[in-house]
Design a protein that fits this description.
The protein is mostly beta strands. The protein is 7% helix and 57% strand. The strands form six sheets. The protein has a 22-stranded antiparallel beta barrel. A five-stranded mixed beta sheet has the order 3-8-9-6-7. It is globular, with a radius of gyration of 23 Å.
Length: 619
């Protein structure tokens, strides 16, 4: 598909090509306007680890990467991570209120083709195969790195559309305390507290929080009849902690824990309209690790992680229960062979087990992994190479590769290109479900190509990428077979601009053609274009922020449905005031214009809601 035809899709919504051009022009003009007042801004170029499994400045990554900062996470007082992921280039679909199932689409890939990591370790779900985004607690997160594009050669199964890596908080020297309470619409309330501290050799971090909301009636009974019109509430408790000890110069031992558990309400389409539907969940991850600098050029990271994801739909017409437990042993070695060039080798062993009230023909799998990687710079040239072999006990041994190249045309302007392949392992419902599972399934496969340009100047950055991914052996819902093919082609553009020293503008826009090649229809719940624009500024003693999220029209569900989801825009605003040295008060209004919209047919999203937050921090 041509660039011109991409801009002509989905009439009735603002032209995405026109908007993308306006955003780029605005970014460049804003940068010129503030050039005299702007210095090199490290906030625009943080160090990330997810794009190559080694530390890199954000501006040096070949894979398109976005960072959700701790400050942005603190602003998500409604408890909803979805708007932040959308601002990082993702599409989100939710079938209910907070806590209910969330599907995240990166680069047009399905939610099953998006991988969730916590501190670089995958959080698998063996029964449904979707990342448990809805269960993530905002407390305990230091940042989130979102890599868009096929990086299966780094992380294995499901990392075709991209990766969402939650980086948890760690201790730091000194004593740092914080607390926050929030109250708002729909009976929403939350409270959290955190403590970080230590010395140069012993550091600790601990945090805890609670969140609750009475919710709203998340189903439109005119579209989904026979469902309960009651409110759908959500309750969550969360804890995080870490301890790191440098027992010898260059050698560090650590342990970390992240836990979230709670209960959410929803409205099932099956059963009497007056029934109460509730699910209890638990998400936990515990990691033991050893980081060692053996020589000036050789370092290693050894970790053992246990992850657990549980869903127990105990209050509904057809109760069910499923728990995935994964134990993962990783040992990564990094060797700096020359200045600016690093070779990595990783061995990994994973054991995944499913417990359920459904009796599966098989309830566990083992995965043995070998991986090699190279990241290097030489003059204006930049390379990233990786290859990975995953040996599954239940279906085969996929091999994935990534080749990426960057060339600095002039200072601050780099052209990039990459080619990669990836796969998604079938989940246990697809392989071994007693009523229709297919043990002969092959993994879904994908090949991806990408061309891009990235520009970094003092005070502003701009990145634009053309991407194409071709899928084969897609697994159908019923009967469960490898029959599907898809092609997703698109252009994404993002810009961050520091206007003067107190104003930051961030914009992202994606134009894509997510096509099911078997039916010649667009893929379900994926728009031809979506984007966001946000502004934060300090004026008159207040911190102001405003953002708009824009999503084009989409088709809902499968090829047999005629329902379409209309385009929408949602505006969120906020203001924050420092009351004293350590105290702040903030007011936030989500969906300022009370827009009615859906991102799954029949499921309403929250209307206008205001929240007041009082926060305290002491360093």
């Amino acid at each position: 598909m041509s660039i011109r035809s991409l801009g002509q899709q989905a009439p009735g919504f603002i032209s995405p090509v026109s908007l993308a051009v306006l955003l780029v022009c605005a970014a460049i003009s804003c940068a010129a306007y503030g050039a005299e007042e702007v210095v090199q801004d490290t906030e625009l170029d943080p160090v990330v680890v997810t794009a190559s499994r080694t530390p890199q400045a954000l501006s040096q990554t070949i894979a398109a990467t976005s960072v959700i900062t701790r400050e942005q996470l603190d602003s998500a007082v409604s408890g909803d991570l979805a708007p932040l992921l959308q601002a990082a280039g993702a599409e989100v679909s939710r079938t209910g209120g907070l806590g209910s199932d969330v599907s995240v689409f990166l680069r047009g890939g399905s939610s099953k083709q998006t991988l969730l990591l916590i501190d670089g370790v995958a959080v698998p779900s063996l029964n449904f195969g979707r990342p448990p985004i809805a269960y993530l607690p905002l407390i305990g997160m230091d940042s989130i790195e979102v890599v868009r594009g096929n990086v299966s050669s780094l992380y294995g199964s499901s990392a075709i559309g991209g990766v969402i890596n939650v980086i948890t908080q760690r201790g730091r020297p000194g004593l740092h305390m914080s607390g926050q309470v929030t109250a708002g619409e729909n009976g929403t309330h939350s409270a959290s507290a955190g403590l970080q501290g230590g010395t140069d050799t012993l550091r600790y971090s601990i945090g805890a929080g609670v969140f609750g909301t009475s919710g709203f009636n998340s189903i439109d009974q005119s579209e989904v009849s026979g469902t309960n019109p009651d409110r759908d509430g959500f309750r969550q408790k969360a804890f995080n902690g870490s301890l790191d000890w440098q027992w010898l110069t260059g050698h560090e031992l650590g342990v970390s824990q992240l836990s979230s558990f709670g209960r959410y309400e929803y409205d099932s389409e099956y059963g009497p309209a007056n029934q109460a539907d509730e699910t209890t969940y638990r998400l936990q991850q515990t990691t033991l690790r050893s980081r060692d600098q053996w020589t000036p050029i050789w370092s290693s990271n050894l970790s053992w992680t246990q992850s657990q994801e549980l869903s127990n739909a105990d209050t509904t017409s057809y109760p069910w229960y499923a728990k995935t437990v994964s134990r993962d042993l990783q040992w990564q070695h990094d060797v700096k062979v020359y200045e600016g060039q690093t070779v990595s080798a990783t061995v990994e062993h994973s054991v995944q087990q499913l417990s359920s009230d459904t009796v599966y023909a098989r309830n566990h799998r083992d995965i043995d992994t070998l991986a090699l990687g190279y990241v290097g710079e030489y003059g204006p040239h930049q390379w990233q190479l990786s290859i990975r072999r995953d040996d599954y006990s239940d279906f085969g041994t996929p091999i994935t590769r990534y080749v990426g190249y960057g060339y600095q045309v002039i200072k601050g302007v780099t052209l990039t290109a990459s080619h990669s392949n990836g796969f998604r392992a079938p989940n246990f419902n697809e392989l071994f479900y007693p009523w229709g599972g297919n043990a002969s399934l092959r993994p879904e496969r994908a090949n991806s190509e990408e061309l891009g340009i990235k520009i970094r100047q003092d005070g502003w950055t701009l990145r634009s990428n053309y991407f194409q991914t071709r899928y084969r052996d897609l697994i159908s819902t019923w009967p469960i077979e490898n029959i599907g093919r898809a092609r997703i082609t698109g252009i994404e553009t993002s810009a961050t601009v520091r206007v003067a020293k107190d104003t930051l503008v961030q914009a992202e826009w994606t134009i894509q053609d997510p096509k099911d090649m078997s039916t010649d229809l667009s893929l379900a719940r994926r728009a031809y274009h979506h984007g966001s624009l946000g502004v934060t500024t300090s004026q008159w003693g207040y911190e102001w922020n405003a953002g708009v999220r824009m999503v084009g029209a989409r088709r809902d569900k499968d090829a047999s449905t005629s329902e379409h989801l209309p385009a929408y825009e949602v505006v969120n605003v906020g203001v924050e005031k420092a009351l004293a040295r350590d105290w702040k008060v903030a007011l936030k209004v989500d969906n300022l214009f009370d827009r009615d919209y859906e991102n799954a047919y029949g499921y309403k999203q929250a209307g206008r809601a205001a929240y007041v937050t009082l926060s305290w921090s002491h360093d």
